[in-house]
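Quick question about two entries, pasted in order.
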Amino acid sequence: MSYNKIIANGKIILVILFILFFISFSFALPITVTIDPLNVVPEADETNNSKNLSPNVVETGGINILYVPVDWAYYGDSFERVFVPLVKDQNSFMFATYPFSGDNFRSRISMRNLDLGLRENQKLSPIEILVILKRLNREYLLAGSNYDKIVGVVPGFWFSFHYIGSEGVTSFLFPNVALVDAATTISTSHEVGHTYGLCDEYNFLTWNIQHKWFLCPNAFPSNCEQDLFRSDAYCPGSIDTTGYRVELAAERVPFVRKFSLQYFDEAEADRDDQIQHSSAECTEITEINGQFVFECTYYYHNFMGRAGETYNWVSDQTYSHLLSTLSDEFSKKAADLKDLSPSNVVFVSGLVDLQNNVELDDFYILQGEPSENIVLGDYSLKLLDSSDNILSDTPFSVSFTLLSNPPVDLNTAFFGLAVPWVEGTKKIAIDVNGLRKAERLVSLNAPVVSGVSVGRGVVVSGLSTIEWDAFDVDSDSLSFVLQYSDDGGASWKPLAIDVRGNSFVWNADFVDPGENFGVRVIATDGVLTGEGVSNVFTVRAPDIGVSTSEWDLGEFDVFGDGVSQDFFITNEGNADLVVSSIVVSDSLFVVSGISLPLTLSPGVSQNFIVSLPSFFGGKEKVVLGEIDENIVVVSNDPNELMKVIDVVGELVQITPFPSVELVAPFEAKLNEPFTVVATVKNGEGTLRDASAALELPVGLVSSSPLVVDLNAVGAGKDLNVFWSVVASQNGLHDVRVNVSGGNFARVSSEFFVSVTNVQLSSVELPPGLSSGEPIDVSVQVRNLNPGVSYSEPVVFVKLFFPDGSSNEVSKTISLLGANKTESLQFFLGSSLYKGNHAVEVAVLRDSGVLLDSELVFFEFDGNGSVDLSPTQILFNSSDLVVGRKVFFDSGVKNSGSHGSGLFNVKWFVDGIQEGYGSHLGVGADTTVLNGNSQFWWVAQPGTHTIKFVVDANNRVAESNEENNEVSVVVMVP
């Protein structure tokens, strides 16, 4: 059932097909048919107006499109590389939005460019646009039943250069033909929708003009509330304000594209251009790793509306009509399969003006199908016998409006239709409102065509001359249609129309090679036709095939481990294929595994490898964002001089999270080497061009290079670096190791090494320390040097507490003899914090030169309790912008009755440690807000958890160990 209007009792009853949901191409599609949904007609029973149907989408039929390139001559050799991907995008969008079965959606690209010979910026009139549609329509009619639709495809922005700012045109005169802009993904779906009787949904004035010619499925434009020129009386808005959506369409549209540019001015100009010309919604421009980045969202929901103007899908009425039409076509095609007998039709075309003057073109009588969906009108095509008796009468309509945006009124229009040929016809006439406006007599004899030949033998390649003989007894002027077949005459495809003379130069390179070719020449004397067919011949040429037309990288780490893909080239033709070059549009890719030039015999294959190496060949800088590159294979295939493989994906930079762990002795002997081991551990992302640098103070030297090239440390991997260090003088030396990478990762770690010939033989503490008791520390210092006594200057033994729990004390040794031991006793008070403490004993000369030191830990268990907890994390939400530094601040509270000792704090982002440090002790019942508890973080897009932990290493004994952390969730748009 199709949508229609039924006039009953003077009132309009709407019959609407509501599609409830769309599962997949091969499953049943529930439909509810509702009569009088608005209850405008009073009825005795209002409950029986709906009926459920379940047609199968696999039975809706499909479509076979011939894409014809129009006016692409100036693209030269790059025509195919540009044209084919654009047509593929048109097909993808149509497949996503139309209710096709996957097996019933077919298309073919004609490699024969319809050259218009236009000058640059030459403007065409509406009637000249209609002439292009007429030429495409003649190709459709003369192609027989091979194609359902002919879509002429012009280069991007062609309409702006040569006509008006449209994206496609159709005409009611030619219901199976459309002319579209190649660069607009939606244009084929939109214009082909018109050929199925769908009307625009974005503009009342445009819809109203279409509605006058046929009943639009949508009872009013669904989104005309956005039209500034709307009339409320005739534009009440859509019945279904949410529109209808199918799941497959939702997966493909709308889509988001990310842009990354090197300079802000370029990014700003590009963003403004996308918003202005693409009706896109774009984010703000942000700077990430030296690139200016923004994203744009494009909305293509309504293929009978406009991109960006509506978030609704096509109306239920529109989609139901399309589904119904495709179902009817499927049923008709299935029925036609039962009648395989050929039938003759006469193809009549001409020109008409507003005064109804008619000029006729040459007619053709040939095997084919009559025109469908002819709009009835005041014009009539009549077939008459010798006595002017009417053998057939076909009413039709002529439109003087070109469907473009905006619609254009014309002074001249064309018509063209095919009707069944009736034997005995002697005259073909066109009447308007009963008045004869043009006629053509049928001659007594049809022309005869013979001697059709192609080239000079049974093998054809490249430019070849088709020649034939033609004779007409009536001496009528003849014109010719040329067709070719690649299946031994089972089907025929258009080659040339309205040829004059007896020869035509054909470039056989525009077809795939094969062995069952033939050419048919059809002659017309104005009405009657005759035909001749050549012998079967072979078209010889190489034919390149590749294993895939697209390499999808997905989301790829720009500093990752590299990726590669195997491709296969096959010669599918019947002549040698010579592959001369393989080029990738971005030099970051590497082609290997093949030696060029390469010659492949028919049926032979060869593989090659394309790689995206680790770190992109060591390049310092690449542009992050979408990958849209091409692998171009150049060969001597005349039909496809360049075979193009799309490379798509997205380059992202994942920030690595390295850490450094050091292994080194705390004490070393003078002038003897010791080993430092740095283990670099890495989290997410790969360190690019990473290196580890050893910083040595005066008095330490290394026989190894201070800076070691790490090459790469992959995500979740670690790498060890070794140095051999020698101390040239005594002392306590601070050594640091820094790790940095080309993607701005930098971490460091340090250690102390004590170099001396003097030892602390022991540090002793009394057992059972408790609060209020004095603490005695016994120290024994030994001079291991058998030949040196330390007397002048004197030696100091210094005892201090790094956690600040007690004041430092020191004593002097007046004489430390060679190979002697000296005992010292220190007496401390009892003011220590409860918990773990460290005592360091240092032996120094009075000049401050450190001879030796030793660190001793002990636990002090005084009275009272300690309970540490973090305060709330504070930050400025306005700083949550990609690339901006965010300052997080927290304090530490001790709820206990006893002060704590020194402890450590840590900051985490999404569970990964980002900050680490020590914090001085906090007194009893005290909150410290300005300690070492702040953290800086560079904002990254997404939702993140920030966590602060106190006493991260459990150094402090607490009454409650469960309240040591606090978190906050932030979102960076």
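Here is the second entry:
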Amino acid sequence: MSTEVLVLGPTRVWTAGVEVPLAPIRRRLVAILALDRREPVTTEALIHRMWPDRVPATARTALHVHISKVRDAVPGLIETTADGYRLGPSAGLDVETFESLVVAAEDAAASEHWAEVLDLCDDCLRMWGGDPFGDISEETYALPVAVRLGERRHEVDNLRLQALLATGRNDLAVPHAVELVQRYPYSERFREGLMLALYRSGRQADAVRVYQEAHRFLGEELGVEPGPELRELEERILAHDPSLGPRPRPPTPHSLPRFATSFVGREEQLEILASELRPGRVVSVVGDPGVGKTRLAVEAAGELLDRFPGGVWFVDLGGATSALSVAATVARATRTTEVVESLNSLGAMVASRPVLVVLDECELVLDHVRAFLEGFGGGAPHAAVLATSRVGLGIEGQSEMVLRSFHRRTHVAVRLIVDRIRAVDRSFVLDEEAFRALTSLVEAVDGVPLALEIVARWVPTLGIGETTRLLGDVSAGSALETAFDWSFRLLHRGDRALLGAFSVFSAPFTLARGHSICAEPGTSEFDTAGSISRLVEASLLATEGPRTGTVRYRMPGPVRDLASARLTDRGEVFDRHAAEFRAAAVATGAAANNEGQAAAFAAAEVELADLRQAMAHLRDVGDWDGSAEIAAGLARFWYSRFLGWEGRVWLDESLARPLSPRVESTARMAAGFLAWAVHDYETADRHYRARLEEGRKAADVGGVADALYGLGLIHQKRRFEDGAAMLDEAAELYRSLPGRELELGQCLLFRGLHEVGEGRTADGVPMLEEAVELLTRAGHLRQVSKAHRWLAHAAWLEGRGGLGRRHAATAEDLARSTGDQPALAGALIELAFLDMDGREFGGAAKRLAEALALIPQDDLVDVCQVLTPVAWLAELAGEPALAGRVLAFIDSVYDDSGWLPANSRMCVRRLEARLASRGECDRPEAEPPSKTEVMAGVGELLTRLVEGAPGGGSSALAADDVEGSSHRRG
């Protein structure tokens, strides 16, 4: 069972992917032990650090009790030594992983491998959850370590900024540098980076203003002028020094897997594929198992990154079985965020973008692949598809390359096997005798590349002759099967059993997953790790993932097929697999909306193929409860990854079957949420009402409250009074239930924001203030951010700009720290309104441009929530015609969706009335403007304002409505 101790922020302990709840005093104990890493801490030192102010008389006894309780909760976490106590060796420590990642990033930077630097820095920053050793960071003994880690974080920030500039990602470098300048105001190198990023983005004036601000700030704060580097950079910017950039366009995003071995023997085919793969083309690589189809396709795609600026996306179809799973796998892999109605429509969506899609292992889902490619063929000729399959696709107009083994290309085969031998034994010399011996070995496996990979790993141990002789003693089917069977026999019995069991995984798996699902009872995780290492050495497993951190293991498709055929206890392994991922899905659902969400959702994304497989297995054996529980647990994950339509299909299928009352209730609430999230309010209403009826019959107070909460969210948007009454009733029920502070806080949050949205701040503010208290106590900082956002809106309505900025800044800080993009967009909207009050139109434009970038562009309702303050800004900047067109577009979207969000309702009405009263609202009589037209105008406005040229004209609205009177805004 894997254990992780996290101290880059508040101290937390995770075991098997689940956080272990510990009392604050015990978290302090773990943090103290983690401070000294693996070194023992004496009992006396522990006592004085645990109780720094006053050591109680019973301190020694109390310490032993706390140590015992921690050990009960997390076996093996604390180890007793002759000198005291320390963290056990099996516990992972995020500080150690962080330090190794920083070293790796520094090494990559020294070699100017900037793309790798960027990946490593992002890995580092994802680990950072707050002040290091947050539970003890203010203590004297912890301060040096916390300060040193802070300096290492500073270095990571600097490396990431350098990497963004070096790779031409100025769109990301600007906001990153702005954040760094705010966090490290005395650092001139971050101001240099911001100036350079702005200049390379075509914003010379802004770059010069950064220098002027630095000159003012450093003079006022320290009485010094900027250093020579900063002064020289300003001069070069003013002179348009060509050596400053702009840099080449950013590298093409891709998801191609990495291979640990070199590419050998297919150079000619690689050149042919490079010439064939152009926009509008479909090319397939067809061949027997093990001939290297996937490797060739990945290498070819990697050569063509510059040809497809929209991305090169690798789609592993090995775990897909149905049209739904194929569609969901392709949609997620290609970053398709629209709702997918069919494989044909998905093909058309992908074809409209300049992307290359690599479809791997198509043979088991050929009909579904053909349906996708039929839609692809009807789209615009911007994209290309490269498919691998054991049989031909049968698609008209495609190009097909048949890949064969190296049977008649002995020199190439020998070159491959020598390369693999030398990866293990660098001293190997290919002389004439060795060449003849290897020729026999190549013949024994018919020159199949994967078979050569397998047998090559044994040569340094057994020798060429013995390897060839043993191969001859095996009589199997194909050459690959012969090589596999021979290698399989040479494995230890326990390794053979694990290899067969590992074939249960559809996605790359971790050591922890492999051990808990596949290891025999009584086997230690250490023994499983040894088996995995030997299977990797035998080329029967491949590794993938970062050099440091969590490594995952992948079984090549042909090896999986052969290993699966030797799995004797198939039913038991698949049952354990399904049970493990059922628990994982439930844990993912429990983590939604709290601080564990990002990590849980990231794990679910990697393991999605196994989660789907677990659902399908439970469905096939008639365990509908299990299948429904996985589907319900993944509901918010699916929605966050734009796969809500897939979750709805699974949940609808489950709800059509007999379920236990508990699971049916959970599934109905999940189905209602997914319907609500995509604005299908009729379906959501039906699910929530069914749950309400069930809850009332069973006297399930919590279930009734949950259903009323869901119904209240729907009906507040339709008939405000009905929805408000439902949320009020739900809140009263939650108050009567222990442990439901989160749900009560959410009720008050939504009630409060709608009251504020209607302008009734006196009613809404107390609800929001109580919501902040409850949600903070529950640890749901994402929701706390939203509450502060609405408190900021209320303050803006009341003309209390200072209070509004404090709330909005808190909302922004919380949203950024939790990675909640919608909440961050909301905070930026409020700050933009406050900027408009002060006639800081450039600042408001910057915030609204960032907010628009955070919103999925296909979700027009959310886009319109940002366009509402943009309309205000257009009017204030003297462009009432644009304001009118934006409002017309907003009206058309809200008419189609059937509701007007709270933050837009009053603002839209007020602005419409103002424009109409002055006859300035240029509204089309027939068709409303298109999104393309509106966004073009909005983009021009925001760009002009950001660059400091707000355009002409004064505004009566600016004169009347931005002075701060609450009655004028209401």
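Reply: Residues 949-970 have pLDDT under 50 and may be disordered. The chain is about 65% helix and 5% strand. Hope that helps.
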